[in-house]
Specification:
The chain contains 4 helices and 46 strands.
Length: 508
């Protein structure tokens, strides 16, 4: 019996006491004894209850606290209970916050927090908010029933999840580090602005699915999320956000490739002022950039833009090459714009080419602009090849020297005034383009019977493409009987069918 008594006595000393916050002190500091029942500040290893109704709890700067278990802020209290960690907090076990339908728990982390678990709003109708605002919150638990649970709860010690709590996790600035992020509730989200989330291991598929479900979002849904495994932080999936493309390009390293995820981006005017390759992840139909002001300016050499739709409801021009959005002309070289859609919405010129050399425009679609492409007097060595330039007022307007412009293999059609205007003198080589008609472009003296787009004087348009059914402006190869711009089994089938039905003297 004595043995049992001794063991019970030892257990009472090993397992620390519970301490409950009552907010009875003259301030809100954790280290003020009067704020705790019994006027005793919790010792290291004790469990704490943080449940003052509409209360405030602060761990002051320079202070370190080390509870073993935390219940709160807001367990049974009504109203909002807010806890702010300016100093440091270490918790070696579970932490439940926001567990009352009539209350809300808020945790602010401008300091440092390391906890094994964090259960935020872990049940039906519960509400909790975490704001990482300048500090670091590290949830280090890694197991089926430990780690980070947002708007959800492990109810059977393995991994059964209830998904009805309302949890808002805001990474305003600083770091949210999580070793094990469990399935988060349907009413929960992680919102990243200028902070970073680190997930241990390769969690790229998890992050991608949570972005798709809008449970990881950027700037309240107006920005976009990027993530990377192992490159930025070895062993971690790094999740970060940008408010817009301008910020993303500003942050990118010189000479790097920037992949822009699917979405619609509303942007003010901005310049790309460093050598970047900017690519959409899934093509121009999936990445739409709506510009204002003077659109995008390319003000450095070596820029590649690939696979975007650029449009507007207010801008003056969509893309300036060799000219900043403030109007300054800047020499740029070796730039390529390809696989893009420029839609001026009847308001904006598509592309303005200013002080540049060796610039290529390949396989773009330029439509609904006052001028699809404007080439200034100082532009040299331009290649405008394989583009679809249609339904503008004027397709291409050349203002300067024409002898270094390659305008070939384009579809220039349905433009309401002119397909091409040469206002720069000399003769512009515009051979081998499609003009919207099999009899070529209209010119009052050189081709008066042409029913395609009109061209001005000084435009050499002959020879020209006659077009195909499925591809309006590439020339049909010889033997393409069904006019689909391919020679294949379909053409052979037509020949064979003619053989079978033909009975006259001209049959093959």
């Amino acid at each position: 019996m004595k043995r049992i008594i001794i063991l019970t006595f030892l257990a009472a000393n090993v397992f620390a006491a519970d301490r409950t916050w009552d907010g009875g002190g003259a301030d809100d500091n954790w280290t003020t004894a009067a704020n705790w029942t019994g006027d005793v500040v919790p010792l290291s290893g004790e469990r704490v209850y943080l449940d003052e109704s509409s209360g405030t709890i602060i761990v002051p700067t320079g202070q370190t606290v080390s509870p073993t278990k935390i219940i709160g802020p807001c367990n049974t209290a009504i109203g909002t209970t807010t806890m702010t960690i300016n100093g440091e907090l270490y918790n070696s076990s579970y932490w439940y916050m926001g567990r009352n339908i009539s209350g809300q728990g808020v945790l602010n982390v401008p300091g440092y927090v390391k906890t094994r678990d964090l259960f935020v709003a872990p049940g039906n109708g519960y509400s909790g908010t975490v704001n990482v605002n300048g500090g670091e919150l590290w949830v280090y638990g890694d197991g089926n029933s430990i780690g980070a649970f947002f708007g959800s709860n492990c109810t059977d010690g393995v991994n059964t999840i209830t998904t009805t709590g309302t949890a808002a996790i805001n990474v305003v600035s600083g770091i949210l580090r999580i070793n094990r992020l469990h399935t988060i509730g349907v009413n929960a989200y992680i919102n990243i602005t200028y902070g970073t989330m680190l997930l241990s291991g390769d969690k790229t598929s998890l992050v991608s699915s949570l972005i798709t479900s809008n449970q990881i979002r950027a700037f309240g849904g107006t920005g976009f999320v990027q993530f990377d495994y192992n490159t930025l932080n070895p062993g971690y999936t790094t999740v970060y956000a940008f408010s817009g493309l301008h910020e993303m390009f500003d942050e990118a390293a010189e000479g790097s490739t920037v992949y822009v995820p699917d979405g619609v981006y509303y942007e003010g005017q901005f310049d790309i002022d460093k050598s970047l390759t900017v690519m959409s992840q899934n093509g121009p139909e999936n990445v739409i950039v709506n510009m204002t002001g003077n659109g995008i300016g390319i003000t450095d050499s070596g820029v590649i833009i690939d696979g975007f739709t650029i449009t507007t409801d207010s801008a003056a021009v969509l893309l300036n090459v060799g000219k900043s959005v403030s109007g300054a002309t800047i020499d740029v070289n070796n730039c390529t714009i390809q696989n893009c859609i420029f839609d001026g919405d009847g308001l904006a010129d598509g592309i303005y080419v200013s002080d540049c050399n060796d610039v290529n425009f390949y396989s773009n679609r330029i439509t609904d602009c006052p001028n699809g492409v404007i080439v200034s007097s100082s532009a040299l060595n331009l290649s405008i090849v394989d583009n679809d330039i249609f339904s503008n007022a004027c397709g291409v307007r050349v203002l300067g020297a024409v002898d270094q412009i390659n305008l070939i293999s384009n579809g220039i059609y349905w433009n309401t005034s002119y397909g091409v205007v040469n206002a720069g003198g000399g003769t512009l080589n515009a051979e081998n383009n499609y003009w919207g008609s099999e009899n070529g472009p209209y010119h009052s003296t050189l081709n008066p019977s042409g029913s395609g787009n009109a061209v001005s004087n000084g435009v050499d348009f002959d020879p020209y493409f006659t077009g195909c059914n499925d591809d309006r402006w590439h020339i049909c190869p010889e033997g393409d009987i069904n006019a689909d711009c391919k020679i294949d089994y379909k053409d052979l089938a037509i020949i064979a069918e003619n053989w079978l039905v033909c009975s006259g003297p001209d049959c093959p």
